[in-house]
Amino acid sequence: MHLLKNSKWRYATKLFDTSKKITPENLEKIKEVIQLSTSSYGLQLYRVLIIEDPEIRHQLKSASWGQSQITDASQLFVFCNYTKVQHKHIDDYLELTAKTRQINIDSLQGYGDFMKQKIKEKTKIELYHWTIRQTYLALGNLLNACAELKIDACPMEGFENDKYNQILGLKNKNLNAAVIAAIGYRSKEDKSQYFKKIRKPIDHIFEIL
């Protein structure tokens, strides 16, 4: 099982080799895997920013507790959830579904009404956290894709999302920086790669009822 082997290989990389960059071909593969991520109702209520500009990354580093991964990795992925869920998001999804499957959009109206009703039942706070959780599903796919390609990654919550939102101009786009991931290639100086992985025993995590 390659996934199991890859999971044992990967770790949260602390120091990246600044001389090594991800090829455009591998970057496209990672983007496609993220695109194929599962999400509630299939709506994918998020956008993913790939930050390469050195100046922007320098600004983001100051909003990330000065962590070197922000500027030293090949790319920085910023997963942004929508702060408000609008009917248009659902309507756009229905249109895409009808076009992709070549069916009449009227046949999807009932499903669209169902989604709108379920979303209407949630409070603003519930919707906000619901869309944030969707980004973590996509993040998991990025980590698995990187491990298979032998690309190192570091998922990170250690940043000030309000400052990220300001630097990246996200507020006016109905977006919020939810979680980030730096990807590239590990530095030989990163001692973390030599540490044994610490995980709870299987029987401490799982319970069969």
UniProtKB/TrEMBL annotation:
Belongs to the nitroreductase family. This is NAD(P)H-dependent oxidoreductase. Its cofactor is FMN. Keywords: Flavoprotein, FMN, NADP, Oxidoreductase. Residues 8-185 form the Nitroreductase domain. PANTHER family: NAD(P)H NITROREDUCTASE YDGI-RELATED (PTHR43673), NITROREDUCTASE (PTHR43673:SF2). Pfam families: Nitroreductase. GO terms for molecular function: oxidoreductase activity. InterPro entries: NfsB-like, Nitroreductase, Nitroreductase-like.
